[in-house]
Model the fold of this input.
Amino acid sequence: MKKVFIFLGPPGSGKGTQTSRLADKLSIPHIDTGSLLRKNIQDETELGKIAKSYIDKGNLVPLNVVSSVIKERLMEDDCQNGYILDGFPRSIEQAQALEEILSQVGKFTLKDDAMAIYFDIDNELLIQRLINRRSCPKCGTIYNLISNPPKIMDYCDICDTKLTIRKDDNEETARARFKTYENETAPLYDYFKQLGILEELKADGSISEIWENLKEIVFDE
Ligand code: AMP
Done:
């Protein structure tokens, strides 16, 4: 069984939801660079100050910032048995940086231990999904007003906190994030294919259908 899972796909393709499920099932951490960066912004760290202007525009945060955030995270104890990377790498240069970080951390390699899972989904659907996304600022649960609405409009089912809209989920920034994805991240499909670690996941169904597809890929390899 592979130890490092890399979730690759356009913004809003459902990577976050499926990553959480797989992380629970395998008891390994879900490492999401977007959340790590937003936490740095909230804590007003030096890295957060640099990251903020890029995130607000839907651009990629510079390599040195993301690399140091991810390296620090991968060195934590809970990463010993594997982890799921969601939103990293997001460009060829980040994939190369990941190989370098893995060799420094010294535990896994991309070729032998990693599986990259590509979320295959029609891009046109995704902008609508993104602008209808809501999340709970307290427990982190993600909702979608169309495909996965909360029971009571705008309030978290789990902790009853008022849901919030991510600042970069407005239409203009969402379109910029798609462009960034097409230019920077989509080339990783070929990169991982050449490495022989790419798997394709049909990701345009319901959350439970996608989960079934994902389990087949991860557990039947
Ligand atoms: P996400 O939560 O994954 O949609 O990421 C939100 C924003 O954080 C992105 O639009 C980027 O500005 C930034 N970000 C997240 N992950 C990365 C990464 N691996 N490299 C550069 N920027 C990132």
